[in-house]
Amino acid sequence: MSEQKQTPVKARRRLGGWMPSSEDAAKTFRLDLARKAQQRANRLQGAPRASVVKDLSDLLLGDAVLRMNLTRAIGEAREAGYELGYTSIEELMAIVDYLMTYAPPFDPSAPVATPLNAVLEWPMCMPSGYAVFRDPAFNEQMRRVLDYWCGFLSGPHSRTHLNTHAPHGWFCEAARRKIGMDQFVCDPARPYWGFASWNGFFTREFREGVRPVAGYGDHRIIVSACEASPFDVRENVQLHDCFWLKNQPYSLREILTESQQDLAHRFVGGSVYQGYLSAFNYHRWHAPVAGRIVAAYNVDGTYYSNLEAEGVDPGGLNHSQGYTTAVAARAVIVIDCDEPAIGEVACVFVGMAEVSSCRIVALPGQHMEKGEQIGYFQYGGSTYCLIFRPGVIEQFEPKPPYHDEAPPIKVNAHLATARR
């Protein structure tokens, strides 16, 4: 630990603007959050915590291995020089409980759209933390915690910052410019601009005609399924590979799951395109091709697990993008394209951290036109990939090298061209 003590990371490559790149800004947020959580705990002294947080606490304190590993991970992060805002599991649980009724404010300089990720980000990439954040019982309980918070964000009490009050209101002038609010369906004359909840605002829809479908009627033109920046393109994807390695090969058996092996075999040798979403962009998914839905299912997985091979410095969870396609909570939708030469296209929408509620609206048997909505991320989104069969793609429009500041490819825009 001595080396980490001497050189704690001062900045991280946090993709998509979900958290600030400056560690000082993230630290300030954590310490402020911890202070508010403690104030709330003092004010409500004796009041029970949210049931899901109590169950998480009982799990962590009742399982000797989990308790030891998380306690050590907290200690390792603090010894490495990171200020967390908590020193124990008990103090961490007070912060988690506070977040169950937290609505993210707008912040133009240091956004923290995933507050629990900000709280956990250093323990989860410490040596003792990797096992905790992969533990099935821990992830099952985290799913319940996040579902509980998602319930709050889907209700009227989550609209605290849906106003025009600068600097934290999502409809103040700076926020409107940042997110291009005039592109979306809303009504400034109505309370909260017509949104019933925070999630209603975050899954806002574009106005008619704002995102025209590229190559409509031309099956060779494949469009972007999300408003997302390019992360990677890989060819000759394998059925099974060492997906935990630093170069993060894509492993079809893990991505599509063990129960879908026939499906996975049909994509062996094919192509994968992956993009990542921004906190400020559109969070619904559209069909990249016209065709019939032949499979649509959700996969439970991890929520804060990242890849050891990426290390502390490259950005942990955000730069474990390829790895998350195989382990994180996700939705898989497979479309059998109307163009036989393209065949099936697998669309994988991955939820990381708090953005893990993947809602499918296109069900097997339905026919979708290119550009039609097929689902959405409840409270934001994180990353997605499209998987094509061998020999299908002539070329992808995004070209390497891909970089963190790449602008998003608009949903329904030309993403790839299929061979004739």
Automatic annotation (TrEMBL):
Keyword field contains Membrane: no
Entry keyword set: Decarboxylase, Lyase, Pyruvate, Zymogen
Domain L-tryptophan decarboxylase PsiD-like: 51-178
InterPro entries assigned to the protein according to its UniProt record, in alphabetical order: PS_Dcarbxylase, PsiD-like
PANTHER family: PHOSPHATIDYLSERINE DECARBOXYLASE, PHOSPHATIDYLSERINE DECARBOXYLASE FAMILY PROTEIN (AFU_ORTHOLOGUE AFUA_7G01730)
Protein name (database record): Phosphatidylserine decarboxylase family protein
